[in-house]
Write a structure and sequence with these properties.
Elements: E1 2-4, E2 6-8, E3 11-13, E4 20-25, E5 30-36, H1 40-59, H2 62-78, H3 80-91, H4 95-116, E6 124-127, E7 131-139, E8 142-146, H5 152-165, E9 169-173, H6 180-191, E10 199-201, H7 206-214, E11 221-225, H8 228-238, E12 244-248, E13 254-257, H9 263-275, E14 287-291, H10 292-307, H11 327-342, E15 346-349, E16 370-373, H12 380-383, E17 390-396, H13 399-407, E18 411-412, E19 414-418, H14 422-431, E20 436-439, E21 454-455, E22 458-459, H15 464-470, E23 472-480
The structure holds nicotinamide-adenine-dinucleotide.
């Protein structure tokens, strides 16, 4: 059985206490690897390796850092098929999605930040002949990077690329549920000849390895993506040490469809925004609000398309919905469907294990995508993040009511708005309390734009120069003339 080891100072190393965790393929329920169950001493070793590498790396010219990261991007591209397969096996997502979304985005992340640092500028504030101020942007030191299981390589590289491009060294802690692509990436980091210690990967549980990183005094910066409750724990550990912290957390995103929308496009994209990656994307639109005059027509078309989604073997290129991340998560998601009934909702389709899966998938965490109607917006099903293939559909009567529903959540990550009325699109977009509003689209990502959440969806913004700002300290130099 494959053992996933830590990557510290350019070497693969077993965890110091010798323990391993099972890594399960959620489509079959079978163990596919054993992953290092690291603790504080492994994190100490990784932080020490990163600290040793930092003085030379921060002095390495931007052009050279850029060249090495471009080389890494090329190596990810050369290993495209293998990485897509590993991601699918580890997380249950369709391999077709890993090929379309996860691996291409990992490549783009490296190329984007490798080239961004070649174009960075800083500011100058002249003081009327008296003095000149200019801003230096300098790397912070050792960056702690903690990522979740839903987009493992995509989100890990979204952190490693800007951190290292900006001149930091890093200790990454991927999700213990999906360590395989991080493990392969570590080998590619070595192959790219990125100096030892610049990128370190420590595997293991959040409560052990993750916590050791967020509370480590040698790590002045934490970039975390994961659940809101975990985010609070990260903040509590990092706060007293005055770390720079970026938190990308959960969502309960509204998807508002006005009567004047292009209905066909709204239905088709709402299928993706509800069920892509089994609904396990923080940006999924899990609360659909439809203007009452088109509610029935939208619902008919939406339910029909939902029923036609192909749920099954993640390795089959035709599969649209794969397995959830684990049996435990499936039980949690299914529990919300029971709760929906208790709260007075009706399940129009889905919510069952697909009856006809081939034998090898019998133990898999599969769930047919579910559409729920008839719920109150204030109930738990419409308030709590379910993070699975479950969507609610609710009618509304006016733009104000739609905005009130959208904002009636403690989350504020993203929203979609469907309308052909441009003025209405602008008004509604401005009124929704969230970090990203898509109009007549979903998940269209320009890597230059600010990305992040309001309210309990996060703190700070990443993307483009926001990421490079986060991963550097601004220093003002004032010169008397
Ligand atoms: P999670 O919070 O359970 O775990 C995320 C990571 O944090 C994992 O690596 C985990 O091991 C680690 N961790 C757990 N406890 C920790 C602790 N006490 N200290 C330090 N690290 C700890 O989240 P998950 O279940 O892996 O991912 C799903 C969640 O992530 C959802 O809520 C989803 O909305 C959110 N998410 C947000 C974004 C975004 O950009 N806003 C993107 C993807 C996922």
């Amino acid at each position: 059985m494959k053992r996933v080891l830590n990557f510290i100072g350019g070497e693969l190393r077993p965890p110091s206490a010798g323990g391993y965790l099972p890594d399960v393929d959620p489509a079959t329920g079978e163990e596919i690897a054993r992953v290092a169950d690291s603790d504080a001493s492994d994190v100490d070793a990784a932080v020490a390796a990163a600290s040793r590498a930092f003085p030379a790396w921060r002095k390495t010219a931007a052009e050279e850092r850029s060249r090495l990261l471009m080389r890494l991007a090329d190596l990810v591209e050369e290993n495209f098929d293998e990485l897509a397969l590993l991601e699918s096996q580890d997380s249950g997502k369709p391999v077709a999605l890993a090929r379309r979304l996860d691996v291409p985005r990992a490549i783009r992340n490296f190329r984007f930040f490798a080239t961004a640092i070649l174009h960075a500028e800083t500011r100058c504030h002249p003081m009327d002949g008296e003095a000149l101020n200019y801003t230096l942007r300098q790397p912070v030191g050792v960056a702690g990077l903690i990522s979740p299981w839903n987009l493992p390589l995509y989100l890990l590289t979204w952190k490693i690329a800007p951190a290292v491009a900006a001149g930091n060294c890093c200790v990454a802690k991927p999700s213990e549920l999906t360590p395989l692509t991080a493990d392969r990436l570590a080998e590619l980091v070595r192959e790219a000849e990125i100096p030892p210690g610049v990128v370190n990967v420590v595997h293991g549980r959040g409560a052990a390895a993750g916590r050791a990183l967020t509370s480590h005094p040698g790590v002045p910066l934490i970039s975390f993506t994961g659940g809101t409750k975990t985010g609070a724990d990260v903040m509590a550990a990092a706060g007293p040490l005055f770390k720079k912290v970026s938190l990308e957390l959960g969502g309960k995103n509204p998807n508002i469809v006005f009567a004047d929308a292009d209905l066909e496009a709204a239905v088709a994209t709402s299928i993706s925004s509800s069920f892509a990656n089994q609904g396990e994307i923080c940006l999924c639109g899990s609360r659909i609000f439809v203007e009452r005059t088109i509610y029935d027509e939208f619902l008919d078309r939406f339910v029909e398309k939902t029923k036609n989604l192909r749920v099954g073997d993640p390795r089959d290129p035709a599969t649209e919905v794969g397995a959830l991340i684990s049996e435990a998560h499936l039980r949690k998601v299914a529990g919300y469907l029971d709760l929906a009934k208790e709260e007075g909702g009706r399940i129009l389709c889905g919510g069952r294990r697909p009856p006809e899966l081939p034998g090898r998938l019998a133990g898999g965490a599969f769930l047919e995508p579910a559409v729920v109607v008839g719920l109150e917006c204030s109930g738990r099903v419409m308030q709590e993040e379910i993070f699975g293939p479950v969507v609610t559909v609710t009618p509304f009567d006016s733009p104000d009511e739609a905005v009130a529903y959208a904002n009636g959540s403690r989350y504020g990550l993203s929203a979609s708005v469907w309308t052909r009325d441009l003025a209405k699109a602008h008004r509604v977009a401005a009124a929704i309390d969230c970090g990203t509003v898509w109009v007549n689209t979903w998940l269209l990502r320009d890597l230059r734009v600010p990305f992040g959440g309001m309210k309990e969806s996060g703190v700070g913004r990443e993307g483009g120069f926001d990421s490079l700002d986060f991963f550097t300290e601004a220093k003002n130099v004032c010169i008397k003339l």
